[in-house]
């Protein structure tokens, strides 16, 4: 992606750490948690790889179409699984956004948008609005609720890999990362 190196490396670190935590979440005893964690790990590591500053590493031309194919497959999987739940629809939007960013980088790996004209393309603007709303909603969901399951008031804490607040924080950080990446293309 384009942009200054320091924020780019911070984005790489955030996304890689999120992907690593999602890999650890795949050890959950809940099958739906494991599947969601696997999808989120793919997104976290994929975002980390795409966010490496161009000044540090210029990938070969085949990398961007490969990302498009990889995340196109992830989008199809999310579409198939999304028939049963809304969170997978978010995975579909995230994977589609990654395909879009890879396609933009394929078209113009050094100059940003190759769409001509000025301003933000409509699809980029729509994705920015979606992820901004997602980040705000995710942030609100992180606020503690007295007496909620797993809170100190109830005395029963879930296993560390099944903690919903950690999964929400993971999703929040990936939403922020997606916003940052969309702003730089």
Shape: globular
Strand content: under 5%
What's the end-to-end separation, in Å? 6 Å
Average residue pLDDT? 83
Q: Quaternary arrangement of the chains shown?
A: single chain
Give the number of DSSP strands.
0
- Uncertain residue ranges: 111-118
The Rg value, from CA coordinates, equals 17 Å
Overview of this structure, please?
- With 185 residues, this protein is mainly α.
- The chain has 6 helices and no strands.
Reconstruct the topology from this structure.
Elements: H1 5-25, H2 31-50, H3 63-81, H4 86-107, H5 122-141, H6 164-184
Helix pairs in contact: 1-2, 1-6, 2-4, 2-6, 3-4, 5-6
Give descriptors for this structure.
185 residues; 6 helices; globular
Summarize the structure.
The chain is mainly alpha-helical and 185 residues long. Helices cover 66% and strands 0% of the residues. It contains 6 helices and no strands.
């Amino acid at each position: 992606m384009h942009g200054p190196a320091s924020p780019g490396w911070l984005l790489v670190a955030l996304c890689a750490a999120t992907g690593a935590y999602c890999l650890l979440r795949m050890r959950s005893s809940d099958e739906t948690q494991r599947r969601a964690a696997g999808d989120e790990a793919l997104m976290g590591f994929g975002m980390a790889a795409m966010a490496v500053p161009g000044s540090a590493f210029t990938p070969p031309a085949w990398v961007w179409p490969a990302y498009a194919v990889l995340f196109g497959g992830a989008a199809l999987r999310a579409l198939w699984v999304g028939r049963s739940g809304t969170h997978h629809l978010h995975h579909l939007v995230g994977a589609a956004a990654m395909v879009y960013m890879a396609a933009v980088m394929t078209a113009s790996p050094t100059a940003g948008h190759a769409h001509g004209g000025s301003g933000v393309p409509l699809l980029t603007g729509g994705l920015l609005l979606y992820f901004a709303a997602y980040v705000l909603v995710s942030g609100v969901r992180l606020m503690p609720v007295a007496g909620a399951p797993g809170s100190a008031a109830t005395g029963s804490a879930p296993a560390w890999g099944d903690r919903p607040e950690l999964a929400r924080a993971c999703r929040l950080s990936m939403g922020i990362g997606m916003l940052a990446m969309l702003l730089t293309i």
